Amino acid sequence: MTAEPAPAPAAAPAPGDRTPPPGPRPAPAPVPPPSEPAAEPRTAFGRVVREGRPFLRARRGVMLRLGGWSLLEFAQTFLGGFAIARAIDRGFLAGSAATGLLWLAVAAVATLPAALATRGVFGRLADLVEPVRDGLVRRAAARAIGAALAGPAAASSRSVSQVTHQSEIARDGWAGLVLSLRSFVFTAAGALAGMAVLSPRLLLVVLPPLLLGLGLFLATLFPMAARQRAYLGADEAFAAHAGQTAAALRDIAAAGAAAGTVARAERLVGEQAAQARALARWAAVRVLALAVCGRVPPLLLLLAAPWLMRHGLTSGALVGAFTYLTYSLAPALHALLSMLGTAGGRLVVVLDRFTGPAPLPPPPSAHPEHRPEHRPEHLPEPSEHRPEPRGRGRSGPGPAGRAGHPTAELRGVAFAYGPEARPVFEGLDLRLEAGGRLAVVGPSGSGKSTLAAVLAGVAAPTAGEVRWLGRPAAGQEPTSVRTLLPQRAYVFSGTLRDNLRYLRPAARDLEVAAAVEAVGLQRLTERLGGPDAPLDPGRLTLGERQLIALGRAHLTTAPLLILDEATSHLDPAAEALAERALAERAGTLVVIAHRLTSAARAERVLVMDGTRTETGTPSELLAGSALYRDLAGHWAGAPR
User: 114-118, 297-301, 590-594: which has the minimum mean pLDDT?
Assistant: First the structure.
C-alpha cells in the first residue's frame, strides 16, 4: 500500500521567524484515504478462481480452438435426435421408406466429424492442462526452498506430497473437468436446441428436474470440499509422520519409542478413515442428485406424453426427445457430475493448498547479530548450514577471547524423542578441549548420531546444558563454532572450487590447493580437469562426494569439527589420510567411528550403549571395557 505524496509548502519561513503569514490561513489539503487492498476471498473456491482468472485469460486462444472443435459435437447431438424425428414423421409413418432411410443416413454421417473433433480436442487439451501441473510443481518447489533458506523450522515434508501426489491430482482433475464440462456444455446445448425445434413444450417437462438435480448437486460442493481439505490435511500429517519415522528408526529403537510412534500412526490413520467416511456420506447425497437429473426426466416425459401429443407433439418428435435424453444428455450429465463429485472437489482443495499463503518462516533470532548469512544461490547442506563469518583468519581457533575454556562441553545432558520415550542417553558429561580428538563408538542404534546432533546444536537436549567456548550454545550462532559433516555428503552442480569454498567463500586459491592435497583430492581434481572444471554430482561416487565434503571442512575455521560417519564410503587408507589432515587443522575433532582404526587414532574414545557410557584412551578401554573389546573384535572380523 503506497501513501499519496504530501503537497509541498509554498514558502518555508526563515528559521526563528514565528510571525504568521499575512492573510487567512489556508485549510489543510484533504488527504485521500489510502486505497484498500482487495479483500481476500474467504472460501477455497474464491481463492482458486482469483488465481485461475489470469491463467485462463492468457490462454483464450487455446480455449477458442477447443470450443471450435467442440462445435462438431454440438452438431452431432442436434442432428442425431432431429434426424430420427424426421425419419419417423416424414419417412416411415408417411409411407416413404426412402425418406426415412435418408434421414437415418444423415444421423449416421453426423457421427463422423465427432471422431475428428475428439482428436482436435485432445490436441488442444495438453496446451491447457500441462502448464497447470508445471506451474504447481514450480510453486511448491520454490516454497520449499524458501522455507529451507528461512530456517530449518520452516521446512517440512508438505512439499513432497505437493510436488508428487497433489500436483498429479490437480493435473488429472483439471483435465477431466475440462473434458467433462466441455462435453456437457456443447452436448446439452445441442440436445436442448433440438428439443426446442421439435416442440418448445418439451423443455417445460425436461428442464425442471434437470435444474433441480443440478442445484442439489452443486449444494454438496462446498461441504465436500471441506471434507476433502480435511482428508488431505490428514494425508499430509501421516506423510510427515512416516518421513520422520523412516529417518529416525535407529534412534526410535534405541529410545524405546516404538509404541508411541505406532500409536501416533494409528491415530493419523484413524483420522484419514474418519474423513473418508464423511466423504462417503456426502457422496450418497450426490447419488440422489444424479438420479434426479438422469432418471426423472425420461419418466416425466413418459407421463406427459399424452398431454404433449394433444398439443401437437408428433410420434417422431417424442422418439427424438427420448433420443436426446437417453443417448446424449444423460451420459454427458452423468460424466460431468461424476467428475465434479470426485475430481472436482479434490481439485479445488488441492489448488487452494497451492494458491493459499505460504507457511510463515520461523520468528527471528533473539540475537540478530548471530544470524547466518544466507546464500540463496545454493541449497544448504542439511548439517553444514552456513559459512563462518568473514574476516577471520585460518590460524584462529574460533571466536577470540575464550582462552582457557573447552571448545565444547556437555553438562548432565539427556535426550529423548518424547516425554514418554526412554532417553537415548542421560546424565552425560563430556569435555572437549581445544585441539583434542574424540572418537565415538557403539552398536547400531546406541545414539551416536543423536549425540552428534545435540553436540552440534541441531537437536536440543531434553535435560542438561550444551556449552561452546565457555558459553551456553543456545545463545550462539552454530555455524560460527562448529561444522557437522553427515554420512550423506552434499555436492552441488558447479565447479570443484565452488564446492570446496561453500562454507568459506573467501578462502584463497592457495588454501584451496592445500586442502585438495591434504585430504587426497588430487586424483579426482585431475580427472575432472582441474578445480575450475564443471562438476556433475550425478557422475560422482559416494566416496568422491565424501572427499569433497571433507575438503570443504578442512577449509573452514570453525573450532569444532564433527564427522558423523563422514568417511564411511572411503577405503581405510583414504580415511586415515583425511582424518589425519583434519586432526592437524586448528580445532577440535569428533569422529563418529565406523572402523576400529578411527577409534585407535583418537586421543580419547567415548563408548555408548544406550544410557551407559564409558570414556578413556583406546588402550584403557581395551583393558577395562567389555563392550569396547566386543566392538574391536567385531571390527577385526569384519570385511575391509
Answer: 114-118
Residue 592 forms beta bridges with which residues? 440, 564
Q: Sign of torsion, CA 159 160 163 165? A: negative
- pTM of the predicted protein model: 0.43
Residues 6+ apart with CB under 8 A from 495: 531, 532, 533, 534, 535
With beta carbons less than 8 A apart as the criterion, state whether 604 and 439 touch: yes
CA dihedral sign, ordered 233, 236, 240, 241? positive
**Nearest Cα to Cα of residue 173 among 386, 325, 350, 405:** 350
β-bridge mates for residue 562, sequence order: 484, 590
Residue 384, classed as helix, strand or coil, is coil
DSSP H helical ranges for 506-601: 509-519, 522-528, 542-555, 572-584, 596-601
Q: Are 387 and 502 in contact (CB under 8 A)?
A: yes
**137 near 164, Cβ under 8 Å?**
no
Residues found in the chain: 640
Over residues 562-581, the mean pLDDT reads: 88
Q: Is 423 within 8 Å of 462 (Cβ atoms)?
A: yes
Q: Residue 21, SS3?
A: coil
What is the C-alpha separation between 206 and 320, in angstroms, rounded?
Answer: 13
CB 228 within 8 A of CB 346: yes
**Model pLDDT, residue 238:** 84
Run of H or E including 431: strand 425-432
Q: Taking the alpha carbons of 361, 364, 370, 375 in that order, is the dihedral positive or negative?
A: positive
